[in-house]
Design a protein that fits this description.
By secondary structure, the protein is mainly alpha-helical. The chain has a single domain, classed as Growth Hormone, Chain: A, CATH 1.20.1250.20. The protein contains 21 helices and no strands. The chain has helices at residues 4-7, 12-17, 23-57, 61-89, 91-109, 115-143, 146-158, 160-178, 180-188, 194-200, 205-210, 214-231, 262-283, 286-292, 297-308, 311-321, 327-346, 351-375, 382-412, 418-439, 448-451. Helix 4 runs parallel beside helix 6 (115-143) and helix 7 (146-158) runs antiparallel to helix 16. The longest helix has 35 residues, at 23-57.
């Protein structure tokens, strides 16, 4: 074994990368992953409850689209503010605050007394949800070695379709019995996961080192090494000689546009809004559009649950392919598949073809999202990882804000129809595929510090 004062002279990344994966790191990953999973449940609720809210508050298509966009506006604010704060005051504390905000806002949604209050609480819910995603993405990537990083990052976002399905099941079971207000209550209760985060999750040693808190970084990592050592049947591997290092210092927003990162920033700030525009333009309205084709609300929810279930094999295939074909190839292929299937879904004439193309569409979309979430934090160094990830996700929320609202305008217009909604979404997916193909680097098999030399 190496004495503590000798260990302290080695950089944090080398020490983390050489640790074998044990139940301890897996527990850290599960805590972060489930935080995001509960977010997905809350975000997915609106797609199933929108027809009931339209009826309750007498909403037009345009107002319903505005409601769908409001949470995205909150997520825009939450993403960019929390990303910057996560680089300044820490990953763990921002993860805790994000859960407090969305938990309280979710409960307040159940008390909404008019459309204005519904908009306000949905916005605040979005702030909490938007804050959690960039912080969780940055934090999870910093704990894991390169051999496991891609797989765990895809699982984190890949559980989202299960979260959406869970939201649908809650709505399916509770909506006919006790109404939409109690659905919001049920989906806000998992915010008590906050107490698990407070007790079980350490701060990121990489972040502590990046801001010069070297003693705390070393103390935290020594505890991690001790826990990993307890679970290993053999001594920990030796610490390798430093072969990769990052420049340390404060997070500077301007660095995202420096010559080292500008291509990545342009690519991600195009990919995120395009992908979220296409996704939310389709999915916020997917139940309502089935209702308008003549299906009952509960039957439409049932069909959407079945269609969304294709996201499960979609994200499982992403967890396998992310380290086989690489991030770039997976993102490009998934965007192309999402665009093509969205177009044919919108033009399907029968229930059978609607479900068939819907299954393909959800499969491709959930190949895409885990890959994007795994890819984004890898492209920035630790000192600006939260800032960069937050910026890109905030840009994505702009696309998500426009998606449901533009869809509402298209449906309400004299020239628009269901097929037009999906054709627009398909075109945006295909544009994003072209941008990624031209500008994106590959990160498969590289340590975070190697990617960001």
């Amino acid at each position: 074994m190496i004495a503590g004062n000798q260990i302290a002279s080695f950089a944090i990344p080398q020490r983390l990368e050489r640790l074998p994966m044990t139940g301890y790191q897996k527990r850290i990953g599960i805590i972060i992953i489930f935080s995001v999973f509960f977010d997905a449940v809350d975000m997915g609720a609106l797609g199933f409850l929108l027809p009931s809210l339209i009826k309750e508050f007498g909403l037009t298509h345009a107002l319903a689209g505005l409601l769908g966009s409001m949470s995205m506006g909150g997520m825009l604010v939450g993403s960019i503010v929390a990303g910057k704060l996560a680089d300044k005051i820490g990953r763990k504390i921002m993860l805790q605050w994000s859960m407090i905000i969305w938990g309280i806002s979710g409960l307040m949604l159940a008390l909404s007394w008019n459309f204005t209050s519904l908009l306000i609480f949905r916005f605040l819910l979005g702030v909490g949800l938007g804050a959690e995603y960039p912080v969780a993405s940055a934090m999870l990537s910093e704990f894991l070695p390169k051999s496991s990083r891609g797989r765990y990052m895809t699982v984190m976002e890949g559980l989202a379709p299960i979260g959406v399905i869970s939201a649908g099941l809650v709505a399916y079971l509770l909506l006919p019995q006790i109404g939409w207000r109690w659905v919001f209550v049920a989906e806000a209760l998992p915010a008590i996961w906050l107490f698990v985060i407070r007790r079980r999750l350490p701060e990121s040693p990489r972040w502590l080192e990046s801001i010069g808190r070297n003693a705390e970084a070393n103390e935290t990592l020594e505890k991690i090494e001790q826990e990993v050592s307890k679970r290993c049947a053999s001594p920990l591997p030796p610490i390798p000689v430093a072969s990769f290092m990052e420049k340390h210092g404060p997070a500077r927003f301007a660095e995202l546009w420096s010559k080292d990162y500008v291509r990545r920033t342009i690519m991600l700030c195009t990919l995120w809004p395009a992908a979220l525009f296409g996704y939310w333009a389709i999915n916020v309205w997917i139940t309502t559009l089935l209702v308008e084709k003549g299906f009952a609300i509960i039957k439409s929810i049932e069909y959407v649950i079945w269609i969304t279930s294709a996201g499960i094999p979609g994200f499982l295939s992403a967890t396998y392919l992310i380290d086989k074909i690489g991030r770039k190839a997976l993102v490009v292929c998934s965007l192309l598949g999402s665009g093509i299937s969205a177009y044919f879904y919108g033009n399907a004439a029968s229930l059978g073809t609607i479900i068939a193309w819907g299954l393909v569409m959800q499969f491709c979309m959930w190949n895409l999202w885990p890959a994007i979430y795994a890819y984004t934090p890898e492209l920035y160094p630790t000192r600006i990882r939260g800032t960069g990830t937050g910026l890109c996700m905030a840009c994505g929320r702009m696309g998500a804000i426009l998606g449901p609202y533009v869809t509402g305008i298209i449906v309400a217009s004299s020239w628009g129809n269901n097929a037009m909604v999906f054709a627009v979404g398909a075109a945006v997916f295909l544009l994003a595929a072209f941008i990624v193909f031209i500008l994106a680097p590959e990160t498969k098999g590289l340590v975070l510090e190697e990617i960001n030399k």
